[in-house]
Design goal:
With about 190 residues, this protein is an alpha+beta fold. The protein contains 6 helices and 8 strands, in the order βαβαββαβββαααβ.
Length: about 190
Amino acid sequence: MAGDYGWFRSVGDLAKGFCFVWVRGVRPAQVLKRMGADELERIGWQQMVGAGNGERVSSGKRYFGVSRLDDSWSLVVEDNGQLGTADELLRALSAGTTVVCLYRAADGSGRFLLLDDEAVQLEFDPMSDAPASGRRAAELAPLITAVGGGGVEAGFALAERLTGVPLDLAGLQKRTYLFSTAPTGQ
């Protein structure tokens, strides 16, 4: 439920925007390969999100971290960037697998995206009342309502329902991330 993710409101480091991308069955090193990314170093949570600069620290590049969540899922975390709008990159990540993306822009707009093998299954802005689209939008509508509807917290709850992997701040903080960079394609 959305209430399980109330902790996210206290994460000021991501107040300028963020993107969380869950990738099924693809290890972090392979995630980097699919994204055409280079690993820069291995870092902790606070080092990755503390500056709040994201891709804006250097034009033409995305900066993000990748970590293994469990035996089935890897997690990509980008702070203050636009990975959640990079359709070609997200589709490439989903080739032969499933990708779940929760994105919030600096202006407060957002995107929830579910891709299966490059096909959009569900897409909507959890920060607005706009209708969902995608092949499974009607099927997943009751689930969206059940987790709390819209908002960031409901987006995390929906991602948990779709992946089976809950997130909490302590879990994010204890992980090591492959801090990486990839060209934005611009």
